[in-house]
Design a protein that fits this description.
single chain, Rossmann fold, 2 domains, 6 helices
Amino acid sequence: MTTDLVPGLRKRPAVPTAPAPGGDSGVSADSDALAAWVQRSGCQAGERSHASVRFAFYGRVSTEDWQDPVTSRTRHRDQAHALVAGHGMIAAEFFDSGQSRTLPWARRPQAAALVAALADPDRGWDAVVIGEYERAFYGSQHASAAPLFEHFGVTLWAPEVGGRINWHDEEHEQTMLALGLSSKREITRTRIRVRTAMAAQTR
């Protein structure tokens, strides 16, 4: 084989090696050049695979009466798409409509379907991306999901941390805890407003 068959390589002077069995002399230059090309090609392939992560998008809208499912879905998917740009593409979508954030994932139809797909090696995606923490989790739900995601080698990406969540990073953990508390406070404030409004109407 000559280096003419390998694009991007320049010919180097042949360096005689020890005679091969039968008396023919070997040539190491082409072998060295080919090995170098294979190594470079392998690095490039690795870079391409890193930039082709297949994501599953998960989103949720609380009630069809208070939020427009189409608008909410589009906005959160756009946020998720912007987050993974340059890293991969969204290959699957799970979206719960009319489901409260207080419900655990097992009681949300689409979230439950996503969890069930984790064990399937042919699921067609490698990571999960969300468009907003409050649309996916409530309180400490993320802490329950973490071991499951890690067990199946699936990463979770969120805009609040600017990408992949590192469950073992203290800063990420603190961010998740703060977001969980914020989501609970939002629900509490909403309930108070509803009760106050109902009480005012009965006077």
